[in-house]
Design a protein that fits this description.
alpha+beta; Nuclear Transport Factor 2, Chain: A; 4-stranded antiparallel sheet; 8 strands; globular; disordered C terminus
Length: 141
């Protein structure tokens, strides 16, 4: 059973869930933030976070790109029970953007309440010249 991730910004928690958790934009913002959370970023739950961050500094082979895409699906399935992802289907598209020094991942999921599909895009920065590139959220819906 998935546990609802509670990192929706400044909302207070009630029973492990954000008070204002019904709005889809808040849920999308929570998923986006969850995808960008590095493992160990929250001392209260050091395992929380997207494992994709561990693969970003490896040589970018097709296998590593598959791991990054699957990690995005897995973290949503583990921490967000208001949407559903299918871990048995193909890995989401992962595109290497050399110009911006980032990897773009498009994650498809279903809303748990009405089973409509939605897509969320996120960019992961790569290191260029030893410095980390800032996030670009222009791919986000």
């Amino acid at each position: 059973m998935a546990t609802t991730w509670y990192g929706l910004g400044t909302d207070r928690l009630e029973g492990g869930r954000s008070r204002d958790s019904s709005g889809r934009e808040l849920i999308r913002a929570g998923i986006r933030r969850l995808l960008r959370t590095k493992p160990g970023e929250y001392p209260s739950d050091p395992n929380m976070g997207n494992q994709a961050w561990r693969y970003l500094h490896r040589p970018l082979t097709s296998g590593v790109l598959v791991l990054i895409g699957y990690s995005c699906l897995e973290v949503i399935a583990r921490y967000e029970d208001r949407v559903r992802v299918n871990l048995d289907e193909d890995v989401p598209p992962v595109i290497l953007d050399d110009e911006q020094g980032s990897i773009c991942v498009s994650v498809e999921y279903q809303w748990a309440d009405n089973l409509e599909y939605d897509v969320l895009g996120v960019r992961f920065p790569l290191r260029i010249g030893g410095e980390e590139v800032e996030f670009d959220t222009s791919l986000s819906n």
